[in-house]
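In the design runs reported in the main text, the only information available to the sequence generator was the tokenized backbone. The following block is the verbatim input for one such run; it is reproduced so that readers can re-run the procedure and compare outputs position by position.
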């Protein structure tokens, strides 16, 4: 088992690769920022998946490990200028031991920095973080941003913890304030990504309807509750500069804003810390992406609910085929005004990720 004493040797084995943020800007290409990658050590934790375009599980796992071969070829064919990579779920959030998790986060982050160091004009990184301890997570986020040039972090929903892995840690509690202060100070986003639930949750909720596990229902149901917890527990009131990103068109929250807000009103008298309404946080703190949810009518509805200045294009590769996203985004030429389409494809991402700073 790795110990904190092994951190130095780990850092020496994978020395930080400091790189700049000069990226290939064609002026017309897209930017995508929920695109998965991993290291061989973590492949078993991903499990079997239904891959894009009927690929086998073996083909999917080959694609999620790859950066510079078929991934880059597909980017060139689809006019993708820049892709932000992050560790495929559950990644560090599936490691219950805090020491093992902290060490693996360092290993993953250093490996990602090394893997993309020779092509930073096309690839950026989101840090993986062990969320057992908010101070340690803040320190690793700061290291990856300042030393490795990462553009923020991605967390795969709740952190497993406890000796049996059955304790679930959510980041909407006051003990995580030191982390959100660091996020605010660094002015980088944290991407909230879904994960497969622990077996105890699966057995209680999904055993009767196993086909609803994963993307059909499980992911959105669990992660949206985490996001609502961030709002209702006052995280964005305490840290008004904190920014988070939620994929799959906001895990359904903007589709149900009216209903949610109408019922939350009654919670204020019961001690709910939230000081504003939910919509306000989608105007100031929360962004969403289109990853894996290429629904044009729903996109138009969300534009009306939260505004196009809160929505970015992403794909969710290799869970979703790059070609599928490309066909959809190109189909919007007659749906959105030219400047609005530029904002969706690239403009807002440039701003949120500080790519031109």
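Verbatim output:
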């Amino acid at each position: 088992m790795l110990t904190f004493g092994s951190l130095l040797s780990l850092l020496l084995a994978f020395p930080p690769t400091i790189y700049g943020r000069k990226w290939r800007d064609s002026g017309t290409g897209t930017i995508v920022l929920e695109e998965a990658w991993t290291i061989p050590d973590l492949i078993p934790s991903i499990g079997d998946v239904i891959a894009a375009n009927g690929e086998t599980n073996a083909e999917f796992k080959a694609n999620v490990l790859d950066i510079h071969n078929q991934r880059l070829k597909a980017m060139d064919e689809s006019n993708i200028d820049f892709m932000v990579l992050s560790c495929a779920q559950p990644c560090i959030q599936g490691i219950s031991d805090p020491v093992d998790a902290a060490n693996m986060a360092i290993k993953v982050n250093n490996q990602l920095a090394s893997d993309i160091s020779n092509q930073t004009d096309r690839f950026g990184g989101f840090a993986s973080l062990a969320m057992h301890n908010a101070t340690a997570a803040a320190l690793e986020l700061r290291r990856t941003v300042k030393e490795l040039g990462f553009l923020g972090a991605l967390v795969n929903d709740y952190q497993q913890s406890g000796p049996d892995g059955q304790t679930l840690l959510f980041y909407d509690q006051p003990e995580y304030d030191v982390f959100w202060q660091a996020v605010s100070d660094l002015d980088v986003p944290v991407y909230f990504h879904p994960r497969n639930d622990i077996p105890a949750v699966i057995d209680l909720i999904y055993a009767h309807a196993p086909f609803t596990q994963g993307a059909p229902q499980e992911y959105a149901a669990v992660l949206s509750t985490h996001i609502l917890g961030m709002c209702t527990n006052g995280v964005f009131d305490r840290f008004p500069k904190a920014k988070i990103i939620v994929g799959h068109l906001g895990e359904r929250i903007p589709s149900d804003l009216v209903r949610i807000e109408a019922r939350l009103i009654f919670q204020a008298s019961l001690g709910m810390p939230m000081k504003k309404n939910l919509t306000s946080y989608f105007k100031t703190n929360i962004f969403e992406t289109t990853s894996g949810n290429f629904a044009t009518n729903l996109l138009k509805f969300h534009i009306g609910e939260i505004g196009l200045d809160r929505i970015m294009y992403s794909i969710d590769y290799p869970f979703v085929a790059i070609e599928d996203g490309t066909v959809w985004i190109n189909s919007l030429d007659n749906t959105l005004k030219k400047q609005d389409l530029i904002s969706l494809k690239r403009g807002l991402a440039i701003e949120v990720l500080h790519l031109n700073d």
